[in-house]
Amino acid sequence: MGPRTEPEHTHPDDVPVQTALAALADPVRIQLVRELAGAGDWERACGTFDVPIGKAALSHHFAVLRTAGLIEQRDQGARRVNRLRREEFDQRFPGLLALVLRDKG
Asked: Between 20 and 30 A from 57 (CA), which of 15, 22, 66, 80?
């Protein structure tokens, strides 16, 4: 097995609002974003999230979040770690993440 392909990232400035809203419309992706919001940059590896889906589906959800400019990923040895692009995303879509991340209720 050869080296993994580096993930491609989309900057939030290049994301249409429809893409951002679609990425945040899925409950699994909202859970991923919430867990990343509670962690420091590059602390969470892909396999550490508490979501009830398989590895292939999880990879798909991470790809959707990257394409929407919400996360960045990088490889650290055998692990792929994640960062929520909160500051950049907030500049592009002020208040959107705050609405998604606020307490349910």
From this structure: 15
Instruction: Say if residues 51 and 28 touch (Cβ distance below 8 Å).
Output: yes
The residue assigned the tokens 């990425």 is 23
C-alpha 97/C-alpha 87 separation (Å) is 10
Burial (CB count <10 Å: 0-12, 13-18, 19+), residue 69? buried
- pLDDT tens sequence across 64-75: 999 999 999 999
pLDDT one-digit tens code per residue, 85-97: 999 999 999 999 9
Domain 15-96 in CATH 1.10.8.60? The answer is no
Question: Which residue matches tokens 């209720």?
Answer: 105
Residues with Cβ within 8 Å of 102's Cβ and at least 6 positions away in sequence, in order, are: none
Q: How far apart are CA 105 and CA 95, in angstroms?
A: 18
pTM of the entire predicted model? 0.91
